[in-house]
Design brief:
363 residues, alpha/beta, 5-stranded parallel β-sheet, 15 helices, 12 strands, globular
């Protein structure tokens, strides 16, 4: 999303940079030649959280050296690092625009841990100038949970849907004439995505032939492969690993199934809808729930195997309905996202088109 946003801003004539921990990742080839890429020095070992903490002095030096007008933080973990780096840099005039991409409070979190996490996010929001949420439902929840920082929260559309996705969805017909329902799941093979519930639900779908492609890698792959074998559905489930452009898979599939336990506003369902793919999802994201309900579609309780199986069965039986979902998804186009992010800059008194003024997007 950060790359699409940076590319689009640069295309409009905004002096845009991406500050990256790694500049040779799987998606680095998507970065436009019009975007300047700078590497943020970091440790060679340790997890992402450790790296973000250790990088704070380097970020402060870069802020002093390059003096951007504004910094967009790409997501939850980098928000605090950027805010601290600004304080250390002495460049108080730099606008810090944070983004919350996952729920502050996750399922199963309560008591002291939930209060401490909320307090940390509230203080982080107060240390910045704006905190962007991916839907108005998320923004409302943040304002209610963190009243001291309530004026900081604002919703924006993320850069989810490209024109190529919509064109591909119009061009490709989803398994026309096939008797086998093509199902698709995209996401890391991690507990958050809850692929185990999806596989158990599919074992109960017996009325129709189906096949499932799972795009994504992760530590649970072997465990999930064993589960599929134990359920007797391994011949219908295909683990494809990480795929950098899933749009072709959307176009050839009938139904995208999102079985997650929690999400912010996930990109995958909107990308699928843009490509003409139907969506069955758990109630893991308030923003997505509102979008699907606006299309007349219910969501499934999190972790409910029977309800997920029934929802998949109903969607297979009802058949495709391309228009409404594609129209809704198009509201989350890259151009719409750029409009929203530029509006935030204007609200903060930043003119992104002024000469010798640089806008930086940090990831």
């Amino acid at each position: 999303m950060a790359i699409l946003l940076a590319n689009g801003m640069a295309e409009r004539g905004v002096d845009t940079e991406l500050w990256l921990t790694r500049t040779n990742g799987a998606l680095s080839g998507l970065i436009s030649d019009k975007v300047v890429v700078r590497r943020v020095p970091g440790p060679k070992r340790g997890g992402r959280g450790t790296a973000l903490f250790v990088q704070i002095p380097a970020l402060a030096r870069m802020l002093r050296q390059h003096a951007p007008r504004a910094v967009f933080s790409a997501g939850n973990q980098s928000n605090l690092s950027i805010a601290i780096a600004r304080a250390l840099s002495g460049r108080r005039g730099i606008k810090i625009i944070q983004k919350i991409t996952n729920p502050v409070i996750r399922p199963g979190m309560s008591g002291l841990s939930a209060r401490l996490r909320t307090l940390r996010f509230e203080r982080t929001a107060l240390a910045g100038d704006r905190t962007l949420c991916l839907s108005e439902a998320d923004a409302r929840a943040c304002r209610a949970a963190m009243p001291r920082a309530a004026p900081r929260f604002r919703s924006v559309r993320n850069a989810y849907v490209t024109s190529a996705m919509i064109d591909r969805g119009l061009a490709l017909k989803t398994n026309a004439g096939s008797k086998i329902a093509g199902l698709l799941s995209i996401g890391r093979l991690a507990p958050q995505k809850d692929h185990a519930t999806l596989l158990k639900a599919l074992a109960k779908v017996r009325q129709t032939e189906w096949s499932l492609e799972i795009l994504g890698g992760g530590e649970l792959r072997r465990e999930l492969e064993e589960l599929a074998r134990g359920l007797g559905i391994d011949s219908q489930v295909y683990f494809r690993g990480f795929v950098d452009d899933p749009s072709l898979h959307f176009g050839k599939s009938d139904i995208l199934v999102l079985s997650s336990r929690w999400e912010g506003l996930p990109a995958v369902p909107l990308e699928a809808m843009a490509c003409g793919c139907q969506v069955v999802a758990t109630d893991c994201s308030p923003g997505l729930t509102e979008i699907l309900r606006s299309c007349g579609q219910a969501v499934v309780p999190i972790g409910d195997i029977d309800a997920l199986a029934q929802a998949i069965d109903r969607q297979i039986s009802s058949g495709p309905d391309f228009g409404q979902g594609r129209e809704k998804a198009s509201e989350y186009s890259v151009d719409s996202s750029i409009d929203d992010h530029l509006a935030v800059l204007t609200e903060l008194g930043v003119d992104p088109f002024s000469l010798r003024r640089k806008l930086h997007s940090e990831s």
